[in-house]
Structures are given as C-alpha cells and as structure tokens.
Specification:
This protein is α+β, with helices and mostly antiparallel strands. Helices cover 59% and strands 10% of the residues. Strands 5-6-7-8 form a 4-stranded antiparallel beta sheet, covered by helices on one side. The chain is rod-shaped.
Length: 472
C-alpha cells in the first residue's frame, strides 16, 4: 500500500518536472530573437532520498524505492569567458570606430587630392604672382592676384571653422556619452537590487541577469570596464580600477570644462578625480578631439601664420603702381582670421609687384620674389626644411596614414568581435530545432508519467472499492 502511494507521489513529481521543462523550452522559443537572451535549461536530478521498505526480518536484499525526479535549478546557458572576451574587444572596436569616423571626416573637410583642395589653391596663388611678374602693370593680372589671395585666405578660414566645429561636435558627444554611461550605471544598480532580492529567497532570476548582461555589453563599447560577480548575485562594474557600480549603489561620471584645453570637457568622477580609461567610444572621441583634429588644426595654423609673415615681409619691401610701399598683403594672426588686407581689397595699385620705385610701372621683380616663395624653405617655422606645399602635403599624408590604420584596426576588431559573438551565440543562442525536439521529448515523458499515475489510481481503486466484497 505504501509503495502505491509512493508511486503516486513519484508520478506527480515527474509530471511537474516535465511540465516545467516544457514551459522552459517554450520560453526559449518565445525569446529566440530577443537581443541578449540566454537560452535556459532545466536541470533534473533523481537526488530525492530513496525510501527503504521497513521490515523486522527483511533479508539483506536491495529494498529501497526511488522517489522520483526533482528540479535542481533552471540555469542560463552562458560562457563567462566569452562574455569577457566580447566586452574587451567591443571596447577596442568602439575606440577604433570613433577614431576612424573622425579622421574620415577630416579627410572630407580637407578634400585632398581635389581641385578645390588647399594644395591646388596655394599653387594657383603662387602662379598668379608669377604672371604678375611678367605683366606688373596689368590691372587684370593684379585682380587675379587679389582674387587668388582672397580664395586662399577664405579656404584656410573655412578649413579652420570646419575642423573647429568637428572638435565641438566631438566635445558635445563626450558629454552625451558620459550621460549615457551614468544612465546605464543607474539601471545596473537597480537590476542588482532586483536580482539580489530574488537570489536571497532561493530564486534564479535568469531574465533579469540577461537584461543586466545586455546593459553591460552596451557599456563595454562606450568605455573599457571590468566586471566582477558577487556572492549575492550582484555585479561590481569598474572603470580604471574604481567601481562605477557596486551592489545597489552607482557612482557617476561628470564632465567639466578644462581651461587648459580650449574649455573642452574633461571626464571626472563625481568627487572630481580624473577617470582612467584607454578604450571604448569615449576614449576614441577624446583622442580624435584632442590629438587627431587638434594636430591638423595646429599645423594648419602654423601654415597660415608663416604664410602671412613670409608674404607680408616680401610684399612690404616692394612698391605698388602708385609708389606706395610697406603695405601688408595679408592680415590676421593665423588660420582663424587670415584675410587679404583692406588696402589691397580697395586698390589694386597697392599690390607691390616692383622692387625699385624708379622702374615703375614695368618692374615685376618683387612679384617674382613672391612667386618664388612657393619653392622657398619656409616650413616648419624656426627650422625650415620644406616648402609650404611640402608641409601641407606631409600633413595630408600623415592624416592618410592615420586614417588607414584606424580603418584597418576597426575592420580587424569588427571581424574579431563578430567571430566571438558567433561563438557566444553558439553557446547561449536558441536553436528552434533543438527546442522543438526537447518539447517532443518532454511531452512524451509527461504523457508517460500521466499514464503511470492513471495506472496507480486504477490499482488503488481495485484495493479500495473491489477487494473484500466476498460474503457481503
């Protein structure tokens, strides 16, 4: 009799276990296309203590009865090592993607090689002086010189404005990215609280952990992080060795204007301590803003300053058609404000093409000196080793090399991240075919357990309702 009731309990446990396994397979299928979802698996074990049939004179023979199946837990199928690799490489990918995109924008701004690039415009400027040296009295050629000077100055100013605007855009994005990091940190702390509350009562909050891991993956691309799981189910997320999230508490990053760096944003912790990070979108933005674009701006400014000084020094020594001398051709202090002098704009006769006032109007030797600045060693200032054209072409070549490196590294990192993600999905991703096969397997087991329960019920019915009827 005891065995019959024990058999009913065993069959009931089997029914409940197979139903839970079927429900879990259905949950996997429902989330087959959910980003960040890890497939779940019901772990079954027959670890219930067996029942020993009591007997005073029981022979030394096996007499234990199994008590059925139990659900140990419902676990996420996930590889933490692959998670670590994906997050580390995602940070590198984020860094090189931002660097690549920023440098490619600089290439578009400079537009080299191209008909409207600064190199061709400088060449046209020097050629105009060359023509003026041949026809110093021609107002048409003088007009050409003035117009080429205006075009050159406006092009340099335009390049400066666009590069400065790119820096400001990157600076704005630094602030946006810091806000996004803080938002993710707050969400992670909230999920930590929910997960810890579930773990403490013995639950296994798999779906909450999936949401947390998805946020960590997103954070890893923004800034390089390290993640440590605690015994209570929470995670600590650190940047540069300092915890951004610890348990249910989240620190915050902030941006402050740096007066030593054009008032661009510097990233700090909430207490003003600098944040130590080396990769991710945030690091890429700061490198592009403070190094990539800043170097191009600095070199462009040096080019403009030297151009202003060299052209003005030679022009001041010459004479215009009206006999005037000492006039500047350019005004300004650098790339931001270079312009053709007002006197040149208002009167073509002030363009100093002559070196000797006594030889006016046919003297064009000063214009020739100005044209020869094209081939003079003027750059870089202080220790010149090249011409204006050499300096600018070197700038463009260096940019091209840096861009090519960033493009190559971004492509390599993207391939690596995709490969790691494919490996991770092979572990944690849902296979519809596999889950359908599991449903069939669990359903058959459920039906068999139900049939066993029906059989045991019939046996009890015989014992209770049909035995002992003789003689009544």
């Amino acid at each position: 009799m005891i065995s019959t009731f024990l058999g009913i309990e065993t069959a009931m446990r089997a029914i409940m276990a197979q139903r839970k396994a079927t429900e879990t397979a259905g949950h996997n299928i429902a989330n087959a296309n959910t980003p960040g979802y890890s497939r779940q698996r019901v772990n079954l074990t027959g670890s219930f203590d067996p029942y020993t049939v009591p007997s005073l004179g029981r022979p030394e023979l096996p007499g234990q009865l199994g008590t059925g199946v139990r659900i140990t837990d419902i676990e996420r199928v996930r590889d933490q090592f692959l998670d670590l690799q994906v997050r580390n490489e995602s940070a590198n990918l984020g860094y090189w993607e931002v660097k690549r995109d920023g440098l490619q924008k600089v290439e578009v701004i400079l537009n080299e090689p191209g008909d409207n690039g600064l190199n061709n415009i400088m060449t046209a400027f020097w050629n105009a002086w060359q023509e003026l040296s041949k026809n110093p009295e021609s107002l048409a050629v003088r007009s050409e010189v003035r117009q080429r000077g205006i075009t050159l100055a406006e092009t340099i100013q335009h390049l400066h404005r666009q590069l400065t605007q790119l820096q400001e855009d990157l600076n704005f994005n630094v602030g946006v990215t810091v806000d996004k990091i803080n938002t993710i940190a707050t969400q992670l702390a909230d999920l930590n609280w929910q997960i810890a509350r579930s773990v403490v009562v013995g639950d296994n909050p798999n779906d909450l952990r999936d949401r947390r891991d998805l946020l960590i993956d997103e954070l890893a691309k923004l800034v390089d992080i390290s993640v440590t799981e605690q015994a209570d189910g929470t995670v600590a997320v650190a940047i540069g060795g300092r915890n951004l999230v610890e348990g249910i508490k989240a620190d915050a990053l902030q941006v402050v204007s740096d007066p030593l760096n054009n008032n661009f944003y510097a990233v700090q912790w909430s207490d003003g301590t600098p944040v130590d990070f080396a990769s991710g979108n945030l690091a890429g933005m700061i490198w592009t803003r403070d190094t990539g674009v800043a170097n191009i701006l600095g070199q462009l400014d040096e080019l403009a300053k030297t151009l202003i000084n060299e052209v003005n020094a030679t022009h001041q020594a010459g004479y215009g058609l009206d006999g005037s001398t000492g006039n500047d051709f350019f005004t300004g202090t650098g790339a931001a404000d270079i312009a053709v002098a007002a006197g040149i704009l208002s009167d073509l006769n002030t363009i100093a093409a002559a070196s000797d006032a006594a030889k006016l109007p046919g003297d064009g030797t000063n214009a020739l000196k100005l044209a020869q600045l094209k081939d003079a060693l003027t750059m870089p200032p202080g220790s010149p080793t090249g011409t204006f054209g050499d300096y600018y072409r070197s700038l463009v070549a260096t940019l091209g090399i840096d861009t090519e490196q960033a493009l190559r590294m971004a492509e390599n990192e993207e391939i690596l991240v995709n490969q790691l993600e494919n490996r991770r999905q092979a572990v944690m991703g849902v296979s519809i075919d596999e889950e359908m096969a599991n449903i069939v397997k669990f359903t058959h087991a459920y039906q068999a357990a139900a049939r066993a329960l029906t059989t045991l019920d019939e046996q009890l019915d015989i014992i209770i309702n049909r035995m002992g009827l003789v003689g009544r």
